[in-house]
C-alpha cells in the first residue's frame, strides 16, 4: 500500500524514517488501538497522522544519519500515531479526544482531552451534514420561502466555520452556512456566487439542528448598519458571471501559443521513498500533516544545517464589514479546517510545468479508514531568470548564470477561495515561502443601485466585502546547530558632524541580540532585518557570526479593534515577528484550537509570555504578514493571483556566493525572432549570435559602445 | 541601414512613426547640421537621438492612429533630433550645448546651453582618457610607487563620475578613478576587484590632467575616521576570488540538468518594423533613449488607453562610509552615464529563455558617427505560474490558467556593477517594473584582521562598503484619457463602538484625491494604495471611477543627512511618491544634469514646488524605492540577484477579471516523475493522470477528501 511517497512496498514500522508519514497499515493499527480503548462509545475520527518525535530524540537520530553512522542499533524515537476523534455518548454528547498510539505495540500510550471551551477542526462529514440538516430544517425552509424564488433556481450552501462567539457567550459547537441561489443548468459548474441570499443558518453541530437563521444586511452607504430596504425580488438585479470556459459569454483567446518547459535529461532532483529530497546541494525531507500540508524538515545545504523545520503555521481571514453577524465571518483555514485536508489533487500539466514529482497523503474518513489522497504536493524545478551576471567591460566577457529554483507546492480550496503555497529553494542558499491568493471573493447581497463602504460591488447585487488575510510562517532554525540567536539589524542615519560624519553620507548599522522571547514589528524605514545567527561560529572572512536573515514584510496587521473577539482570537496577527523558545508540539501561531475560539490560547503570544531566554538557545521565529484585500471588480468572478513572498537568505553563512559554481551554460534551445518579427520565422532552431565555448560559458560579442579601459603593468608605472 | 528594430529598409523621415528611434541616416543628417552650424569650433558629440514630440502634438497623431484615420494628410509632429555635444575652443574650454535639428529640412531649429554649473553625462571617450591620463601622470605614478608593488601585478583603473562637490566648491569637470591591482595572468578575466588600492586619482576632464590623488582610509572600527595604520604591504593580505568558470578553485556543478523553454508555434507577440508590440490585448511601442534605455509608449489594453509613457527615470547609489572622500562615491547611473549607453549586447540563450526578439539601438561616438548597438533590449514571453484557479468543491471541477508575461528587458553594466531592468506585462492587465541588482559590490582596502562599521569584509583585505540604491520610476498615465486624478486610499481601524462598529471587526477605507502637486510617503501599516483614476469615467459595476493602482513599496529612503550634498543632489530620494503636473521634457527625477551636481535642479522636487493643480488633469506619478545594501560575504565576488518589483494593477478599470478568457489549456509536454523517483523514469512524454476535454480545460479527478455539499432545488424547500 502506498506511503506518502507512493512506494509500492512499505517497510515495517520499526525501520521507517522517523519523519515519514504514516502508511495505510500504520493508520489501521492506530485506528484499531483507539476503537479497542474506547469500545463503549461511538467514535468519530477526525485525523490520524504521525507524531513528530520530540526534538531531543529526533536530533540524535538525525545527527547519526548525517554522520553516516546509522545502523540497526541506532536508538530510534518511538514510532507513534496521533489520533484525533470524538467519543459520542448515547445522549449524542461528544468528548473531543486525542490518543497517542505506539505503533510497535499497537497500544494507546497517552490520552488527552481538549479543554472544555475548545472546538476541534471541522471535517467533511460536518460540512455534508450541515447541508442535509439545512434542507430538512423548517426554519431554513421558511426563510427561503420568504424570498419567493423562481423555480429556475436551486439553493447552494457553503458551510463555514462559525467564527468567534460574542463575549460572555458560551456556545456549543456550531457550523454556519453562506447561502446562494444557483441557476438550474445542465452544466453543474454554473457560478452561484453571483446570487447571494441574505441569510446565514446556524447549526448546532452535535444536535444536528438549525438553531437560528441570521438575517444579513443588504443596504448601502445610506443605510449605515441597518438591514437595508432590500427589494422584494432579492435576486432580480443579480447577474451571472461565469468562469468555466464553456459558459463564458466571450470566446477564449486564440492567440496564446504554447510555452513548454522541457527537461530532456529529467529533473535535477531526486526523491527517495522516504521523502528525502536532494537537489543542488540542498537536502531535506518533505513531511505532511492534515493541518499544515507540506512541511520541510531537516534542511541542509552542502552538508550544513540550516533549518530544523519550516511550515505554514496559520492564517486568519477576518471580514471588515461591521454589520452583525459578519463579525462571525473569520476563518482560520489551517486550524478550523486543515490545509492538508483541503489540498487539491494536482493535475499534470495544469498546476506546474516541466518534470513534476507528486506526493500523496494518507487521510482518514470519520470512521478512521485511511485512503490515499493523490498528488497533494508537487515538486518541480523552475527557471527564475538571471541568477547573477557580470560583464568585464575591459574584455566584454560576460558570465551569466540562470537561477534555478526547486518548488514544493500545494494548493488548497476552501469553499469559494483558493491559496497556492510554495516553498522555493534556490542555488544561492535562499529559501522563499510564497503565497498566492486566488479563487472567488466572498460576496453578500446588496440592494440595487447601492454602493457600500464595507466592500465593492463586483457583480450586480453582489458586494465583495473588505477583508484581510493574515498568514504566519513558522521557522525553526538550525543555523549550523540548534543554538541560535536572533539579532535585529537596523540602518540608521548619523547626523552630519565634523567628527563622525563630516559630509553627512555616513550611516550606521545597529545590531541588537534578542535575549528574551518577544514580538517585533516590521520597520522598513529603518531597514530592519532579522538575523538568525549562530554566534558560536564565526565567518572566517567577515569575522561576523554565521547567519541567515529575512526582512519582515511590512504589511498591515489586524485592523479589528484589539478588544474585539476577532482580534483576541488571533493575537498572532498583532506583530510581524515573534521570537519564542522552542517547545515540542508548539507549532500553531494561533494555538491548537482555533475553531469558534474567543481567545488565542497556546499561540505565539502565550509562548512569548513565558519570557524565556532565547539568546544562544533553541529559538523559533514566526513571521506574520498580511494582505488587506479590498476587492476590485477585476477580482470577479475568479481573482488573478495576488502574490506575497517571504525570503530567507544566507548572511555571512558561506564564504562566497554559493551559486558561484553554477555553470553558465548557454541554453541552446532558445530561438531568436526573425528581424521582420513574423512568427513564421521564429521556429527554426539555431543560435544566430554568440559562440559557445568549451566550458559552457559565453563570450560576448565585441561592441563599439563599451567604456574602454586597460590594465597597466606596474613596472610601466614604476619606471618613470 | 538598420533602425532600432533592425529593418533592412528605413522609410523616409517624413513617414516614420513619431515614436520611432532615429535611423542611421537621420543621425547623419543631425550630425551634419550641427557641424555646419558650429563650424568654427571643435565638436565633441555626446548623444544624438530622436526628440519625442510635444504631448499636445503627439496625442493628436496617436488619436488618429487609434481611430484608424491616419492618412498621408494627417498632420505629423515635426521629426527632430536632439544633439548633445561640447564645442571646444582653442584654449580647450568646453561649452555644453544641445541642438534641436529638424530632420526634414536638415537645419538646426533650436540651440540650448547647459547652465554654467551643470556637467553633462560622461561618455566612453572620457573613461578611456581617464586611464590614459592616469598612466602618464607623475602624481599617479608616484602614488603607485609608494605601494612598492610586486611585478606580478598590473594596475586596473575603473573610472567613476566624481560625485557632488563639497559645499561652496566650484569645480571644473572632474572624473575620478577607483584603482585596483590585477594579477598578471594569461586569462584577462582574472578578478582584480579583490585587490583594491587606497587611492583615488581625480582628473580635470577638459584639461586632461590628474589634479590630485585622494588617499583612502584602510582602518577598521578601532580607527574611527582616521586613515588607519595600513600595512607596508598593502595587498599582502588580499586574496583573489575568481568568478569566470575556468579560474574557479572549485569544479562547476555537474548535476544541473537542462531546462528548456520551447515555443513550437513561435511567440504570441508581434513586433512591427516601427517597434509596435502587440501581445494578449496589449499594444504599445518600445522606444529607446541613450539615458533611459527601453521606454514604453502609448500603452493600451484591449483598445483602451492605460499609459502614455513608462520609464526608469533615475537612480542614485550613495555610499555610507563617512570617511572622506567616500562621500564622493555617489553615482547617478542614468544621469551620469546613461542606461542606454551602458546596455549589454544580449546573447541568445543567456539572458532569457524561449523565443526572443531583440531590439538594437543607434548610438554615436564622440565624432557623432552612428553605429548600431545590437540586442540592447530583449522581448520574450515567460510563464509566471498559476494565473487564477478555482475548484468547485461540489463537482471537483478545477479551472486553472497559467499567467503568461511579456518581458521587455535590458541589462546595464557600470564598471563593477550590473542592473537587470524589466517591464513585464501580464494577461490580467497588470504591469510590473522589475529591478535586479547583481554584479560586483564596490570594495576598498582594509587593514589585515580589522572589521569596520562602514561595511563588511567580503574577501581578505576587501571591505564592501554599505550603500543604498534608490530608483525612480516615472509613470505618465493615460487611464482612458489624459485627464487623471491621483487618489490615496488607506484602510484604517474604527474603534469598537455600539453604533458604528459593534463587534470591532469593521474598518474603513479613506480615499483622498490629490489636488495639488505633492510628495507622498509609503505607509504600509495603513495599507496605503495610490490610485490613478479617471473620475470622468465610472465603472458600471462598482460605480467607482476607473483606475489603476499601485502600493508604494515601503523601502528605506536616503539615509544621508538632509543637509548633506549627497542628499541635496538627490531630493527625489526623500519621498516614495511624487505627483506632478505633466510638462514636456520633464523626464528625470533628479533633473537633467546629475553629473557632479550639488543640488537637484529641475527634478521632481522642483516640479512639485510649482504647486500646480493635478486633479482631473494631465498628471505624472513618480515612484521611488530603494535597497539599503549592507553587503554579505555571499555577495562576493558576484552577487546573486536582489529583486524588487513595482506593480501597477487595474482597479475597477475592467468589468471583470480581464484574464477570464485565458484558456486553461493543459500543458501536454509536462512529465511526471516515476514513482520510484529516478530520473530515468522521468523522460517519457505522456500525461499519466487527468483528461483533456475538448475545450482545452481540465476535469479534475474525483477524490474522497472533498468537503461534500449539494445544490437543492428551490421547490424542494418550498414544498413543505
UniProtKB/TrEMBL annotation, chains A, B:
<dbReference type="InterPro" id="IPR016182">
    <property type="entry name" value="Cu_amine_oxidase_N-reg"/>
</dbReference>
<feature type="region of interest" description="Disordered">
    <location>
        <begin position="685"/>
        <end position="720"/>
    </location>
</feature>
<keyword id="KW-1015">Disulfide bond</keyword>
<keyword id="KW-0801">TPQ</keyword>
<keyword id="KW-0479">Metal-binding</keyword>
<comment type="subunit">
    <text>Homodimer.</text>
</comment>
<keyword id="KW-0560">Oxidoreductase</keyword>
<dbReference type="GO" id="GO:0009308">
    <property type="term" value="P:amine metabolic process"/>
</dbReference>
<feature type="domain" description="Copper amine oxidase catalytic">
    <location>
        <begin position="259"/>
        <end position="660"/>
    </location>
</feature>
<protein>
    <recommendedName>
        <fullName>Amine oxidase</fullName>
        <ecNumber>1.4.3.-</ecNumber>
    </recommendedName>
</protein>
<keyword id="KW-0186">Copper</keyword>
<feature type="active site" description="Schiff-base intermediate with substrate; via topaquinone">
    <location>
        <position position="417"/>
    </location>
</feature>
<dbReference type="InterPro" id="IPR015798">
    <property type="entry name" value="Cu_amine_oxidase_C"/>
</dbReference>
<dbReference type="GO" id="GO:0008131">
    <property type="term" value="F:primary methylamine oxidase activity"/>
</dbReference>
<dbReference type="InterPro" id="IPR000269">
    <property type="entry name" value="Cu_amine_oxidase"/>
</dbReference>
<dbReference type="InterPro" id="IPR036460">
    <property type="entry name" value="Cu_amine_oxidase_C_sf"/>
</dbReference>
<dbReference type="GO" id="GO:0048038">
    <property type="term" value="F:quinone binding"/>
</dbReference>
<feature type="compositionally biased region" description="Polar residues">
    <location>
        <begin position="686"/>
        <end position="707"/>
    </location>
</feature>
<dbReference type="Pfam" id="PF01179">
    <property type="entry name" value="Cu_amine_oxid"/>
</dbReference>
<feature type="modified residue" description="2',4',5'-topaquinone">
    <location>
        <position position="417"/>
    </location>
</feature>
<feature type="active site" description="Proton acceptor">
    <location>
        <position position="333"/>
    </location>
</feature>
<comment type="similarity">
    <text>Belongs to the copper/topaquinone oxidase family.</text>
</comment>
<dbReference type="InterPro" id="IPR049948">
    <property type="entry name" value="Cu_Am_ox_TPQ-bd"/>
</dbReference>
<dbReference type="GO" id="GO:0005507">
    <property type="term" value="F:copper ion binding"/>
</dbReference>
